[in-house]
Amino acid sequence: MTISVLVVCLGNICRSPMGEAVLRNEALKRGITDIHVDSAGTAAAHLGEDPDERTIEVCGTKGVPISHSARQVRTSDFTSFDYILAADGSNLRALERHVGHSTGSKAAVKLWGSYLPDNKPIQDPYYGGLDGFKEVYEQCVKLSNAFLDEVAGKES
Q1: Which of 22, 50, 71, 77 makes an SS bond possible with 140, Cβ 3.0 to 4.6 Å?
Q2: Which of 38, 77, 88, 124 is catalytic?
């Protein structure tokens, strides 16, 4: 059975496309191929745009393939994904208010950070420098592994 995951941030150009790429990569490293990962934003500000150049740069230096076109969360996402993982509390609240969440949602909508004991949100690196994107990458690796441990078993 395929696990389907949607990673969500605000604009879908920094945290969530990086999270999508990292989660997919960590799953493949474990030999998990029956996983579908996508990402979206709660806002429509960057529809159709590629990921931020710093997201692409950090993923590239880590050997993580990334290819995504920004999109907004759709009502159908709540019935087509098993898990919807929010980067932070603001996006989690936006997801919980979304009409799709209240109309027959099958998705578990959670803060991605809730898979680790510190329950930390992923801070938005957009207005900072490259170091912020590197920190987001490291956090995405940890969160990806914690998520995979829980849903697919320890070090599958």
Answers
A1: 22
A2: 124
Question: Pick the catalytic residue: 14, 15, 30, 59?
Answer: 15
Q: Please, what sign has the CA dihedral across residues 72, 40, 121, 118?
A: positive
Mapped onto helix, strand or coil, the DSSP state of residue 39 is: strand
Residue with tokens 């799953």: 27
CB atoms within 10 A of CB 76: 9
Q: What is the pLDDT of residues 15-48, one digit of tens each?
A: 999 999 999 999 999 999 999 999 999 999 999 9
Known active-site residue 59: no
Decide: 91 and 43 in contact? Cβ < 8 Å. Answer: no
Active site (annotated) includes residue 9 = yes
15: annotated active-site residue: yes
The sign of the CA dihedral 84, 63, 137, 26 is positive
Distance separating alpha carbons of residues 107 and 118, to the nearest angstrom: 23
Question: 10 Å Cβ neighbour count for 89?
Answer: 12
